Amino acid sequence: MELLKRLQREYTEHVPALGKLVSDVASRHLDPRNIPSTDTSFLLDVSSTMVDTLREAAINPSKVLEDSQHLASGYGKLAMNVAGKLMRRDVEPVVRPEPSDHRFDDEAWERNPLYYAIVQAYLLNSKFVQELVDDLEGLSEHNHRQLTFMSRQLINALAPTNFFVTNPEAVRRFRETWGLSVIKGLENFFQDLARSRQMLNVSMTDHGAFQVGENVAVTPGKVVYQNRLFQLIQYQPTTETVHRRPLLVVPPFINKYYIMDLTEKNSMMRWLVAQGHTVFMMSWVNPDASYWDTTFSDYVTEGVLEAMDAVEKATGEREINAIGYCVGGTLLATTLAHLKKKKQDDRIKSATFLATLLDFRDPGEIGIFINDNILKAMEAYIDRMGYYDGRLIGFSFSMLKENNLIWSFFVNNYLKGEAPLPFDLLYWNSDSTNLPAEMYKFYLRQMYVKNRLREPNALEIAGTPIDLTSITTPSTFVSTVQDHIAVWKSTYAGFQLPKGRKQFILAESGHIAGIINPPSANKYGFYLNDEEAQTPEEWFEEASRQPGSWWTHWQEWVSEFQGEEVAARIPGDGALEVIEDAPGTYVKRRIV
Q1: CA neighbor of 468 nearest in space, from 577, 333, 372
Q2: SS3 485
Q3: Does the pLDDT at position 441 exceed 50?
Q4: Whole-structure pTM value
Q5: CA separation (Å) from 537 to 187, 477, 541?
Protein backbone atom coordinates (compact mmCIF):
# COMPACT_ATOMS: atom_id res chain seq x y z
CA MET A 1 0.00 0.00 0.00
CA GLU A 2 2.80 2.41 0.88
CA LEU A 3 4.46 1.66 -2.46
CA LEU A 4 1.26 2.46 -4.34
CA LYS A 5 0.89 5.77 -2.46
CA ARG A 6 4.46 6.71 -3.30
CA LEU A 7 3.94 5.90 -6.96
CA GLN A 8 0.74 7.97 -6.98
CA ARG A 9 2.64 10.94 -5.55
CA GLU A 10 5.36 10.51 -8.16
CA TYR A 11 2.88 10.39 -11.03
CA THR A 12 0.97 13.39 -9.64
CA GLU A 13 4.20 15.35 -9.52
CA HIS A 14 5.57 14.47 -12.95
CA VAL A 15 2.58 14.16 -15.30
CA PRO A 16 1.27 17.80 -15.03
CA ALA A 17 4.82 19.12 -15.36
CA LEU A 18 5.25 17.01 -18.47
CA GLY A 19 2.11 18.47 -20.03
CA LYS A 20 3.34 22.02 -19.51
CA LEU A 21 6.73 21.13 -20.97
CA VAL A 22 5.09 19.75 -24.12
CA SER A 23 3.13 22.99 -24.58
CA ASP A 24 6.19 25.20 -24.04
CA VAL A 25 8.33 23.18 -26.41
CA ALA A 26 5.72 23.19 -29.15
CA SER A 27 5.40 26.99 -29.09
CA ARG A 28 9.17 27.39 -29.14
CA HIS A 29 9.97 24.99 -31.95
CA LEU A 30 7.18 26.12 -34.23
CA ASP A 31 8.89 29.53 -34.38
CA PRO A 32 10.42 29.67 -37.91
CA ARG A 33 13.32 31.76 -36.62
CA ASN A 34 14.56 28.69 -34.77
CA ILE A 35 14.84 26.53 -37.90
CA PRO A 36 18.25 26.67 -39.62
CA SER A 37 18.11 26.18 -43.37
CA THR A 38 21.29 24.09 -43.28
CA ASP A 39 19.23 20.91 -42.77
CA THR A 40 17.88 20.81 -46.34
CA SER A 41 21.22 21.81 -47.84
CA PHE A 42 23.08 19.09 -45.96
CA LEU A 43 20.51 16.48 -47.02
CA LEU A 44 20.90 17.55 -50.66
CA ASP A 45 24.65 17.25 -50.32
CA VAL A 46 24.27 13.77 -48.83
CA SER A 47 21.85 12.74 -51.59
CA SER A 48 24.50 13.69 -54.17
CA THR A 49 26.96 11.44 -52.37
CA MET A 50 24.43 8.58 -52.34
CA VAL A 51 23.90 8.90 -56.12
CA ASP A 52 27.66 8.62 -56.64
CA THR A 53 27.76 5.64 -54.26
CA LEU A 54 25.04 3.75 -56.14
CA ARG A 55 26.81 4.45 -59.43
CA GLU A 56 30.11 3.07 -58.13
CA ALA A 57 28.37 0.00 -56.69
CA ALA A 58 26.74 -0.68 -60.08
CA ILE A 59 30.04 -0.27 -61.94
CA ASN A 60 31.90 -2.70 -59.66
CA PRO A 61 29.36 -5.15 -58.18
CA SER A 62 31.94 -7.85 -57.35
CA LYS A 63 32.85 -6.25 -54.02
CA VAL A 64 29.18 -5.87 -53.10
CA LEU A 65 28.58 -9.55 -53.88
CA GLU A 66 31.65 -10.60 -51.90
CA ASP A 67 30.58 -8.58 -48.86
CA SER A 68 27.03 -9.98 -49.21
CA GLN A 69 28.40 -13.52 -49.18
CA HIS A 70 30.28 -12.78 -45.97
CA LEU A 71 27.05 -11.46 -44.45
CA ALA A 72 25.09 -14.56 -45.49
CA SER A 73 27.79 -16.81 -44.06
CA GLY A 74 27.64 -14.89 -40.79
CA TYR A 75 23.88 -15.31 -40.57
CA GLY A 76 24.29 -19.04 -41.11
CA LYS A 77 26.65 -19.27 -38.15
CA LEU A 78 24.32 -17.07 -36.11
CA ALA A 79 21.38 -19.43 -36.72
CA MET A 80 23.40 -22.33 -35.36
CA ASN A 81 24.52 -20.25 -32.37
CA VAL A 82 20.97 -19.24 -31.49
CA ALA A 83 19.93 -22.89 -31.63
CA GLY A 84 22.79 -23.67 -29.27
CA LYS A 85 21.73 -20.88 -26.93
CA LEU A 86 18.18 -22.25 -26.80
CA MET A 87 19.68 -25.57 -25.72
CA ARG A 88 21.74 -23.71 -23.10
CA ARG A 89 25.07 -24.46 -24.73
CA ASP A 90 28.07 -22.15 -24.65
CA VAL A 91 28.72 -20.73 -28.12
CA GLU A 92 31.43 -18.55 -29.60
CA PRO A 93 30.01 -15.22 -30.85
CA VAL A 94 30.03 -14.76 -34.62
CA VAL A 95 31.23 -11.19 -34.16
CA ARG A 96 32.27 -9.23 -31.09
CA PRO A 97 31.91 -5.50 -30.39
CA GLU A 98 35.05 -3.39 -30.19
CA PRO A 99 36.75 -3.51 -26.75
CA SER A 100 35.95 0.19 -26.27
CA ASP A 101 32.24 -0.37 -27.07
CA HIS A 102 30.40 -0.80 -23.77
CA ARG A 103 26.84 -0.59 -25.08
CA PHE A 104 26.38 -4.36 -24.77
CA ASP A 105 28.03 -4.97 -21.40
CA ASP A 106 24.77 -6.02 -19.71
CA GLU A 107 24.78 -9.79 -19.15
CA ALA A 108 21.35 -10.13 -20.77
CA TRP A 109 22.93 -9.65 -24.21
CA GLU A 110 24.83 -12.88 -23.67
CA ARG A 111 22.44 -14.85 -21.43
CA ASN A 112 19.07 -14.28 -23.15
CA PRO A 113 18.81 -16.01 -26.59
CA LEU A 114 16.55 -13.29 -28.00
CA TYR A 115 18.84 -10.43 -26.99
CA TYR A 116 21.83 -12.48 -28.13
CA ALA A 117 20.29 -12.90 -31.59
CA ILE A 118 19.41 -9.19 -31.80
CA VAL A 119 22.88 -7.91 -30.91
CA GLN A 120 24.68 -10.44 -33.13
CA ALA A 121 22.45 -9.54 -36.10
CA TYR A 122 23.10 -5.85 -35.43
CA LEU A 123 26.87 -6.34 -35.28
CA LEU A 124 26.84 -8.46 -38.47
CA ASN A 125 24.86 -5.82 -40.36
CA SER A 126 27.11 -3.06 -39.04
CA LYS A 127 30.21 -4.90 -40.19
CA PHE A 128 28.65 -5.48 -43.60
CA VAL A 129 27.84 -1.78 -44.10
CA GLN A 130 31.29 -0.69 -42.95
CA GLU A 131 33.04 -3.15 -45.26
CA LEU A 132 30.79 -2.13 -48.14
CA VAL A 133 31.68 1.54 -47.68
CA ASP A 134 35.40 0.78 -47.31
CA ASP A 135 35.44 -1.31 -50.49
CA LEU A 136 33.82 1.33 -52.70
CA GLU A 137 36.24 2.87 -55.18
CA GLY A 138 35.96 5.89 -57.42
CA LEU A 139 34.38 8.27 -54.88
CA SER A 140 35.95 11.65 -54.21
CA GLU A 141 37.68 12.03 -50.86
CA HIS A 142 34.90 14.32 -49.62
CA ASN A 143 32.17 11.93 -50.74
CA HIS A 144 33.90 8.92 -49.23
CA ARG A 145 34.42 10.72 -45.92
CA GLN A 146 30.81 11.90 -45.94
CA LEU A 147 29.54 8.40 -46.75
CA THR A 148 31.67 6.90 -43.95
CA PHE A 149 30.34 9.47 -41.50
CA MET A 150 26.69 9.08 -42.48
CA SER A 151 26.84 5.28 -42.51
CA ARG A 152 28.38 5.34 -39.03
CA GLN A 153 25.65 7.70 -37.81
CA LEU A 154 22.99 5.37 -39.24
CA ILE A 155 24.60 2.26 -37.75
CA ASN A 156 24.89 3.75 -34.30
CA ALA A 157 21.44 5.35 -34.39
CA LEU A 158 19.87 1.94 -35.16
CA ALA A 159 21.65 0.16 -32.32
CA PRO A 160 19.19 -2.00 -30.35
CA THR A 161 20.27 -0.21 -27.17
CA ASN A 162 18.60 2.96 -28.50
CA PHE A 163 15.12 1.40 -28.51
CA PHE A 164 13.14 0.70 -25.39
CA VAL A 165 11.88 -2.80 -26.27
CA THR A 166 15.33 -4.05 -27.33
CA ASN A 167 17.22 -2.54 -24.41
CA PRO A 168 17.23 -4.99 -21.49
CA GLU A 169 18.37 -2.33 -19.01
CA ALA A 170 15.49 -0.01 -19.95
CA VAL A 171 12.95 -2.83 -19.71
CA ARG A 172 14.34 -3.89 -16.34
CA ARG A 173 14.17 -0.28 -15.11
CA PHE A 174 10.54 -0.03 -16.29
CA ARG A 175 9.59 -3.07 -14.23
CA GLU A 176 11.47 -1.86 -11.16
CA THR A 177 9.74 1.55 -11.19
CA TRP A 178 6.29 0.32 -12.23
CA GLY A 179 6.52 2.40 -15.40
CA LEU A 180 7.58 5.67 -13.77
CA SER A 181 10.93 5.55 -15.62
CA VAL A 182 9.05 6.17 -18.87
CA ILE A 183 7.34 9.28 -17.46
CA LYS A 184 10.63 10.62 -16.13
CA GLY A 185 12.30 9.83 -19.44
CA LEU A 186 9.70 11.85 -21.34
CA GLU A 187 10.11 14.69 -18.87
CA ASN A 188 13.89 14.65 -19.39
CA PHE A 189 13.35 14.65 -23.15
CA PHE A 190 11.07 17.68 -23.22
CA GLN A 191 13.30 19.58 -20.80
CA ASP A 192 16.23 19.05 -23.16
CA LEU A 193 14.13 19.97 -26.16
CA ALA A 194 13.12 23.22 -24.46
CA ARG A 195 16.81 24.08 -24.06
CA SER A 196 17.67 23.19 -27.66
CA ARG A 197 17.69 25.08 -30.91
CA GLN A 198 16.14 22.91 -33.65
CA MET A 199 18.47 19.91 -33.14
CA LEU A 200 18.07 18.12 -29.83
CA ASN A 201 20.95 18.70 -27.40
CA VAL A 202 20.84 15.80 -24.95
CA SER A 203 21.86 16.72 -21.39
CA MET A 204 25.21 15.23 -20.50
CA THR A 205 25.33 16.32 -16.88
CA ASP A 206 23.29 17.70 -14.01
CA HIS A 207 23.25 21.40 -14.85
CA GLY A 208 22.12 22.34 -11.35
CA ALA A 209 25.20 20.77 -9.76
CA PHE A 210 27.57 23.50 -10.97
CA GLN A 211 27.81 27.24 -10.63
CA VAL A 212 30.50 29.24 -12.42
CA GLY A 213 32.60 30.99 -9.80
CA GLU A 214 31.48 28.66 -7.01
CA ASN A 215 32.63 25.16 -7.92
CA VAL A 216 34.08 25.71 -11.42
CA ALA A 217 36.29 28.64 -12.52
CA VAL A 218 37.39 29.22 -8.93
CA THR A 219 41.05 30.26 -9.17
CA PRO A 220 41.25 33.58 -7.24
CA GLY A 221 41.65 36.70 -9.34
CA LYS A 222 40.13 40.01 -10.38
CA VAL A 223 38.69 41.46 -13.56
CA VAL A 224 40.95 44.45 -14.26
CA TYR A 225 39.81 45.44 -17.77
CA GLN A 226 36.82 44.98 -20.04
CA ASN A 227 35.40 46.14 -23.34
CA ARG A 228 32.47 44.93 -25.42
CA LEU A 229 34.31 41.74 -26.49
CA PHE A 230 36.10 40.46 -23.40
CA GLN A 231 36.93 40.81 -19.74
CA LEU A 232 40.54 40.47 -18.64
CA ILE A 233 41.18 38.44 -15.49
CA GLN A 234 44.42 38.89 -13.55
CA TYR A 235 44.96 35.97 -11.20
CA GLN A 236 46.09 36.40 -7.62
CA PRO A 237 49.75 35.36 -7.15
CA THR A 238 50.59 32.45 -4.87
CA THR A 239 54.37 32.99 -4.81
CA GLU A 240 56.39 35.77 -3.18
CA THR A 241 58.12 36.58 -6.46
CA VAL A 242 57.00 36.21 -10.07
CA HIS A 243 58.66 36.19 -13.46
CA ARG A 244 59.09 39.63 -14.95
CA ARG A 245 57.26 38.92 -18.20
CA PRO A 246 53.51 38.30 -17.69
CA LEU A 247 51.62 35.50 -19.45
CA LEU A 248 48.52 36.24 -21.56
CA VAL A 249 46.13 33.34 -22.29
CA VAL A 250 43.88 33.57 -25.36
CA PRO A 251 41.14 30.91 -25.03
CA PRO A 252 38.81 29.87 -27.86
CA PHE A 253 35.86 32.21 -28.40
CA ILE A 254 33.79 29.20 -29.44
CA ASN A 255 33.78 27.96 -25.81
CA LYS A 256 34.02 29.42 -22.31
CA TYR A 257 37.55 29.93 -20.99
CA TYR A 258 37.11 27.92 -17.80
CA ILE A 259 37.99 24.61 -19.43
CA MET A 260 41.44 25.75 -18.33
CA ASP A 261 40.17 26.42 -14.79
CA LEU A 262 37.64 23.73 -13.92
CA THR A 263 38.63 22.62 -10.42
CA GLU A 264 41.59 23.03 -8.09
CA LYS A 265 43.04 19.63 -8.98
CA ASN A 266 43.02 20.11 -12.77
CA SER A 267 43.17 23.90 -13.21
CA MET A 268 45.87 24.92 -15.65
CA MET A 269 45.53 28.52 -14.47
CA ARG A 270 46.19 27.59 -10.84
CA TRP A 271 49.24 25.56 -11.91
CA LEU A 272 50.65 28.39 -14.05
CA VAL A 273 50.25 30.84 -11.17
CA ALA A 274 52.06 28.38 -8.90
CA GLN A 275 54.98 28.34 -11.36
CA GLY A 276 55.46 32.06 -10.76
CA HIS A 277 53.69 33.47 -13.82
CA THR A 278 51.59 36.61 -13.65
CA VAL A 279 48.66 35.15 -15.57
CA PHE A 280 46.05 37.14 -17.48
CA MET A 281 43.05 35.34 -18.99
CA MET A 282 40.73 36.72 -21.66
CA SER A 283 37.07 35.88 -20.97
CA TRP A 284 35.10 36.40 -24.19
CA VAL A 285 31.59 37.82 -24.25
CA ASN A 286 28.70 35.53 -25.24
CA PRO A 287 27.37 37.62 -28.16
CA ASP A 288 23.80 38.13 -29.25
CA ALA A 289 22.30 39.61 -32.42
CA SER A 290 23.62 43.08 -31.55
CA TYR A 291 27.13 41.79 -32.38
CA TRP A 292 26.15 40.77 -35.92
CA ASP A 293 28.73 43.03 -37.63
CA THR A 294 31.67 42.13 -35.36
CA THR A 295 34.52 40.86 -37.53
CA PHE A 296 37.52 38.58 -37.13
CA SER A 297 39.65 41.72 -37.30
CA ASP A 298 37.75 43.07 -34.29
CA TYR A 299 38.76 39.97 -32.35
CA VAL A 300 42.37 40.89 -33.15
CA THR A 301 42.24 44.63 -32.49
CA GLU A 302 39.56 44.90 -29.78
CA GLY A 303 40.53 41.48 -28.49
CA VAL A 304 44.16 40.34 -28.33
CA LEU A 305 45.81 43.72 -29.01
CA GLU A 306 43.70 45.54 -26.40
CA ALA A 307 44.39 42.73 -23.94
CA MET A 308 48.15 43.15 -24.54
CA ASP A 309 47.88 46.89 -23.92
CA ALA A 310 45.90 46.26 -20.74
CA VAL A 311 48.53 43.77 -19.49
CA GLU A 312 51.19 46.42 -20.06
CA LYS A 313 49.21 48.95 -18.03
CA ALA A 314 48.64 46.46 -15.23
CA THR A 315 52.29 45.36 -14.99
CA GLY A 316 54.38 48.03 -16.69
CA GLU A 317 55.81 45.33 -18.96
CA ARG A 318 55.66 45.75 -22.74
CA GLU A 319 56.96 42.23 -23.43
CA ILE A 320 54.83 39.17 -22.67
CA ASN A 321 54.56 35.44 -23.29
CA ALA A 322 51.32 34.16 -24.80
CA ILE A 323 49.26 30.96 -25.00
CA GLY A 324 46.45 30.34 -27.48
CA TYR A 325 44.07 27.36 -27.25
CA CYS A 326 42.24 25.95 -30.30
CA VAL A 327 40.75 28.85 -32.30
CA GLY A 328 42.35 31.13 -29.69
CA GLY A 329 45.65 29.86 -31.08
CA THR A 330 44.50 30.68 -34.62
CA LEU A 331 43.67 34.18 -33.38
CA LEU A 332 47.05 34.49 -31.63
CA ALA A 333 48.97 33.45 -34.75
CA THR A 334 47.00 35.96 -36.83
CA THR A 335 47.82 38.66 -34.28
CA LEU A 336 51.51 37.73 -34.42
CA ALA A 337 51.55 38.05 -38.21
CA HIS A 338 49.79 41.42 -37.90
CA LEU A 339 52.38 42.62 -35.37
CA LYS A 340 55.17 41.39 -37.64
CA LYS A 341 53.92 43.68 -40.42
CA LYS A 342 53.78 46.52 -37.89
CA LYS A 343 57.32 45.65 -36.71
CA GLN A 344 55.98 45.15 -33.18
CA ASP A 345 56.22 41.37 -32.91
CA ASP A 346 59.00 41.77 -30.31
CA ARG A 347 56.18 42.41 -27.79
CA ILE A 348 55.49 38.66 -27.69
CA LYS A 349 58.67 36.85 -26.64
CA SER A 350 57.23 33.33 -26.97
CA ALA A 351 53.98 31.84 -28.27
CA THR A 352 52.35 28.53 -27.39
CA PHE A 353 49.64 27.05 -29.59
CA LEU A 354 47.44 24.38 -28.02
CA ALA A 355 45.45 22.11 -30.39
CA THR A 356 45.54 24.86 -33.02
CA LEU A 357 44.71 24.72 -36.73
CA LEU A 358 46.56 27.16 -38.99
CA ASP A 359 46.42 25.05 -42.15
CA PHE A 360 42.82 23.93 -42.79
CA ARG A 361 43.40 21.67 -45.78
CA ASP A 362 42.21 18.69 -43.74
CA PRO A 363 40.05 19.78 -40.78
CA GLY A 364 39.09 16.19 -40.06
CA GLU A 365 35.60 14.75 -40.04
CA ILE A 366 34.02 18.11 -39.20
CA GLY A 367 34.87 19.03 -42.80
CA ILE A 368 31.88 17.07 -44.07
CA PHE A 369 29.66 19.88 -42.73
CA ILE A 370 31.67 22.54 -44.52
CA ASN A 371 31.53 22.98 -48.27
CA ASP A 372 30.24 25.72 -50.54
CA ASN A 373 26.65 24.45 -50.82
CA ILE A 374 26.16 23.94 -47.10
CA LEU A 375 27.97 27.17 -46.31
CA LYS A 376 25.55 29.22 -48.41
CA ALA A 377 22.64 27.83 -46.42
CA MET A 378 24.47 28.45 -43.14
CA GLU A 379 25.18 32.04 -44.16
CA ALA A 380 21.50 32.64 -44.92
CA TYR A 381 20.59 31.31 -41.47
CA ILE A 382 23.33 33.35 -39.75
CA ASP A 383 22.27 36.54 -41.52
CA ARG A 384 18.68 36.01 -40.39
CA MET A 385 19.66 35.38 -36.76
CA GLY A 386 22.59 37.84 -36.49
CA TYR A 387 24.75 35.13 -34.89
CA TYR A 388 25.38 31.40 -35.01
CA ASP A 389 23.87 29.53 -32.09
CA GLY A 390 26.63 27.85 -30.10
CA ARG A 391 24.42 24.86 -29.33
CA LEU A 392 24.45 23.93 -33.01
CA ILE A 393 28.25 23.93 -32.95
CA GLY A 394 28.21 21.76 -29.85
CA PHE A 395 25.81 19.32 -31.51
CA SER A 396 28.03 19.10 -34.60
CA PHE A 397 31.09 18.27 -32.50
CA SER A 398 29.11 15.75 -30.45
CA MET A 399 28.21 13.91 -33.68
CA LEU A 400 31.91 13.20 -34.18
CA LYS A 401 31.73 10.99 -31.07
CA GLU A 402 28.08 10.13 -31.19
CA ASN A 403 28.04 7.01 -29.02
CA ASN A 404 29.85 8.67 -26.11
CA LEU A 405 28.35 12.16 -26.40
CA ILE A 406 24.83 11.52 -27.68
CA TRP A 407 23.50 7.97 -27.57
CA SER A 408 24.81 6.98 -24.13
CA PHE A 409 22.96 9.95 -22.61
CA PHE A 410 19.92 9.35 -24.82
CA VAL A 411 19.61 5.86 -23.33
CA ASN A 412 20.31 6.94 -19.75
CA ASN A 413 18.07 10.03 -19.72
CA TYR A 414 15.13 9.02 -21.90
CA LEU A 415 14.88 5.22 -22.03
CA LYS A 416 15.92 4.55 -18.44
CA GLY A 417 14.49 7.82 -17.05
CA GLU A 418 17.58 8.58 -15.00
CA ALA A 419 19.17 11.96 -14.34
CA PRO A 420 22.66 12.51 -15.77
CA LEU A 421 25.46 12.49 -13.21
CA PRO A 422 27.32 15.70 -12.23
CA PHE A 423 30.48 16.03 -14.38
CA ASP A 424 32.33 19.35 -14.53
CA LEU A 425 33.86 18.75 -17.97
CA LEU A 426 30.50 17.94 -19.54
CA TYR A 427 28.92 20.94 -17.80
CA TRP A 428 31.51 23.14 -19.52
CA ASN A 429 30.89 21.32 -22.80
CA SER A 430 27.20 22.21 -22.55
CA ASP A 431 27.87 25.88 -21.71
CA SER A 432 27.92 27.05 -25.31
CA THR A 433 28.96 30.39 -26.81
CA ASN A 434 27.33 32.15 -29.77
CA LEU A 435 29.42 33.52 -32.62
CA PRO A 436 28.86 36.90 -34.37
CA ALA A 437 27.50 36.60 -37.91
CA GLU A 438 30.21 38.43 -39.86
CA MET A 439 33.08 36.91 -37.90
CA TYR A 440 31.85 33.36 -38.21
CA LYS A 441 31.06 33.63 -41.93
CA PHE A 442 34.57 34.96 -42.54
CA TYR A 443 36.16 32.26 -40.40
CA LEU A 444 34.33 29.41 -42.14
CA ARG A 445 34.69 30.61 -45.72
CA GLN A 446 38.18 32.09 -45.67
CA MET A 447 39.83 29.51 -43.43
CA TYR A 448 37.90 26.24 -43.52
CA VAL A 449 36.70 26.38 -47.13
CA LYS A 450 39.36 28.41 -48.95
CA ASN A 451 42.24 27.76 -46.51
CA ARG A 452 43.63 31.24 -47.17
CA LEU A 453 45.24 31.77 -43.77
CA ARG A 454 48.16 29.56 -44.77
CA GLU A 455 48.74 31.53 -47.99
CA PRO A 456 51.13 34.47 -47.51
CA ASN A 457 49.29 37.81 -47.77
CA ALA A 458 46.04 36.19 -49.00
CA LEU A 459 44.01 37.61 -46.10
CA GLU A 460 43.91 41.15 -44.79
CA ILE A 461 43.25 41.39 -41.06
CA ALA A 462 43.15 44.63 -39.09
CA GLY A 463 44.45 46.53 -42.09
CA THR A 464 47.51 44.35 -42.76
CA PRO A 465 48.14 41.37 -45.05
CA ILE A 466 48.70 38.23 -42.97
CA ASP A 467 51.74 36.06 -43.63
CA LEU A 468 52.22 33.28 -41.08
CA THR A 469 55.50 32.31 -42.71
CA SER A 470 56.94 35.66 -41.61
CA ILE A 471 56.53 34.83 -37.90
CA THR A 472 59.88 34.34 -36.17
CA THR A 473 58.67 34.35 -32.55
CA PRO A 474 59.91 31.26 -30.65
CA SER A 475 56.94 28.93 -30.51
CA THR A 476 55.68 25.63 -29.15
CA PHE A 477 52.83 23.68 -30.74
CA VAL A 478 51.04 21.15 -28.52
CA SER A 479 48.63 18.73 -30.20
CA THR A 480 46.98 15.48 -29.11
CA VAL A 481 46.92 12.03 -30.67
CA GLN A 482 43.16 11.45 -30.49
CA ASP A 483 41.97 14.99 -31.21
CA HIS A 484 38.77 14.85 -33.28
CA ILE A 485 38.45 18.64 -33.58
CA ALA A 486 42.00 19.76 -34.45
CA VAL A 487 43.45 16.59 -35.99
CA TRP A 488 47.12 16.46 -35.04
CA LYS A 489 48.44 15.77 -38.54
CA SER A 490 46.67 18.94 -39.70
CA THR A 491 48.04 20.96 -36.79
CA TYR A 492 51.51 19.73 -37.77
CA ALA A 493 51.01 21.35 -41.18
CA GLY A 494 50.35 24.62 -39.32
CA PHE A 495 53.47 24.08 -37.20
CA GLN A 496 55.52 24.07 -40.41
CA LEU A 497 54.38 27.58 -41.42
CA PRO A 498 56.15 29.92 -38.92
CA LYS A 499 59.90 30.31 -39.00
CA GLY A 500 62.33 30.71 -36.12
CA ARG A 501 62.84 28.42 -33.14
CA LYS A 502 59.94 26.08 -32.57
CA GLN A 503 59.03 22.68 -31.22
CA PHE A 504 56.14 20.27 -31.68
CA ILE A 505 54.76 18.27 -28.76
CA LEU A 506 52.26 15.46 -29.32
CA ALA A 507 50.36 14.62 -26.16
CA GLU A 508 48.37 11.47 -25.59
CA SER A 509 44.55 11.45 -25.36
CA GLY A 510 42.22 14.01 -26.97
CA HIS A 511 41.36 17.67 -27.50
CA ILE A 512 40.62 18.35 -23.82
CA ALA A 513 42.12 15.56 -21.71
CA GLY A 514 45.43 15.67 -23.57
CA ILE A 515 45.82 19.42 -23.03
CA ILE A 516 44.36 19.68 -19.52
CA ASN A 517 46.71 17.04 -18.09
CA PRO A 518 48.17 18.25 -14.76
CA PRO A 519 51.43 16.67 -13.54
CA SER A 520 49.71 15.52 -10.35
CA ALA A 521 47.41 13.24 -12.36
CA ASN A 522 50.31 11.43 -14.04
CA LYS A 523 47.77 10.13 -16.53
CA TYR A 524 49.08 10.71 -20.05
CA GLY A 525 52.52 11.04 -21.58
CA PHE A 526 53.69 12.89 -24.69
CA TYR A 527 55.98 12.53 -27.70
CA LEU A 528 58.98 14.68 -28.60
CA ASN A 529 61.18 15.02 -31.66
CA ASP A 530 63.58 17.96 -31.80
CA GLU A 531 63.84 17.76 -35.58
CA GLU A 532 61.20 19.11 -37.95
CA ALA A 533 60.24 16.47 -40.51
CA GLN A 534 58.61 16.86 -43.90
CA THR A 535 55.52 14.92 -42.89
CA PRO A 536 53.80 14.22 -39.55
CA GLU A 537 54.33 10.49 -40.10
CA GLU A 538 58.10 10.99 -40.43
CA TRP A 539 58.11 13.20 -37.34
CA PHE A 540 56.27 10.59 -35.28
CA GLU A 541 58.49 7.75 -36.49
CA GLU A 542 61.53 9.44 -34.93
CA ALA A 543 59.71 10.79 -31.84
CA SER A 544 60.30 9.40 -28.38
CA ARG A 545 57.62 8.94 -25.74
CA GLN A 546 58.05 10.91 -22.53
CA PRO A 547 56.21 9.93 -19.34
CA GLY A 548 54.14 12.43 -17.38
CA SER A 549 52.51 15.72 -18.31
CA TRP A 550 53.81 17.97 -21.07
CA TRP A 551 53.22 20.93 -18.73
CA THR A 552 56.56 20.45 -16.93
CA HIS A 553 58.46 20.19 -20.22
CA TRP A 554 56.79 23.37 -21.43
CA GLN A 555 57.73 25.20 -18.23
CA GLU A 556 61.40 24.31 -18.78
CA TRP A 557 61.15 25.67 -22.33
CA VAL A 558 59.34 28.92 -21.45
CA SER A 559 61.73 29.66 -18.57
CA GLU A 560 64.17 31.10 -21.12
CA PHE A 561 61.65 33.80 -22.01
CA GLN A 562 60.07 34.65 -18.65
CA GLY A 563 62.73 37.08 -17.39
CA GLU A 564 64.16 37.63 -13.94
CA GLU A 565 62.20 37.49 -10.70
CA VAL A 566 60.28 40.52 -9.45
CA ALA A 567 57.92 41.13 -6.53
CA ALA A 568 54.54 39.43 -6.88
CA ARG A 569 51.94 41.61 -8.58
CA ILE A 570 48.59 42.06 -6.87
CA PRO A 571 45.58 42.76 -9.14
CA GLY A 572 44.69 46.44 -8.90
CA ASP A 573 48.17 47.60 -7.82
CA GLY A 574 49.09 48.66 -11.35
CA ALA A 575 47.49 51.27 -13.58
CA LEU A 576 44.27 49.23 -13.88
CA GLU A 577 41.64 49.24 -11.16
CA VAL A 578 39.73 46.15 -10.08
CA ILE A 579 36.30 45.94 -11.72
CA GLU A 580 34.97 42.81 -10.01
CA ASP A 581 36.03 39.44 -8.69
CA ALA A 582 36.93 36.63 -11.07
CA PRO A 583 35.46 34.93 -12.98
CA GLY A 584 33.53 38.08 -13.92
CA THR A 585 30.09 38.47 -15.46
CA TYR A 586 30.79 37.74 -19.14
CA VAL A 587 31.48 34.05 -18.55
CA LYS A 588 28.24 33.61 -16.59
CA ARG A 589 26.01 34.59 -19.50
CA ARG A 590 24.40 31.43 -20.87
CA ILE A 591 22.47 30.93 -24.09
CA VAL A 592 18.70 30.94 -23.49
Answers
A1: 333
A2: coil
A3: yes
A4: 0.88
A5: 49, 16, 6
